[in-house]
Amino acid sequence: MASLGERLELSCCVTGLEAEDRAGVIKALVGLLDRAGACSDAALLERDVNAREELMPTGLGEGCAVPHAQSAGAARIAVAAAVLAKPVDFRAPDGLPARLVFLMAGPPDSATTHLKLLAKLARLLYDPDFRATALASRDGAALRGLVVRGED
């Protein structure tokens, strides 16, 4: 079974991320994935995630967003997570901007695993206790640990 913990490296988890808009958040999170070796072409992945975002917004509501894409720019399925310093509009159905953002990327042939991981992440993000604890995370290690524990 696909595991979020296996796809979310510590180096890809941050708190206090500064970004002005969706594109800035996506750029920063793709940068984390790139530095972790999860990108074969970071610029292509960034374009694909932004294009997916324009096609259908990824704001879930309750201050959460999950921008994602299957892209030739992704070397493997990987996740990056951030608690934003200030909320950013991801066009959620409830109109609330996001402070908790998970970016998921995978190669074009990763549809089944990609969907399973998105479903797991959505279940976590719909839990109000998980969201509150995630938003209060003091650092990336605490945020990653919460995801790993939440998956059990």
Account of the protein in words:
The chain is an alpha/beta fold and 152 residues long. Helices cover 44% and strands 22% of the residues. The mean pLDDT is 96.
Q: What's the CATH superfamily, by name? A: Mannitol-specific EII, Chain A
Mean pLDDT: 96
The number of distinct β-strands equals 6
Number of contiguous helices: 6
Biggest sheet overview: 6 strands, mixed
Strand percentage lies at 15-25%
CATH topology: Mannitol-specific EII, Chain A
CATH architecture: 3-Layer(aba) Sandwich
Describe this structure in a few short sentences:
With 152 residues, the protein is α/β, with parallel strands linked by helices. It has helices at 4-7, 22-35, 42-55, 111-125, 128-135, 140-151, and strands spanning 13-17, 59-61, 64-65, 68-70, 78-88, 98-106.
Helix/strand layout:
Blueprint (H helix, E strand, L loop, with lengths): L3 H4 L5 E5 L4 H14 L6 H14 L3 E3 L2 E2 L2 E3 L7 E11 L9 E9 L4 H15 L2 H8 L4 H12 L1
Parallel strand pairs: 1-5, 3-6, 4-6
Antiparallel strand pairs: 2-3, 5-6
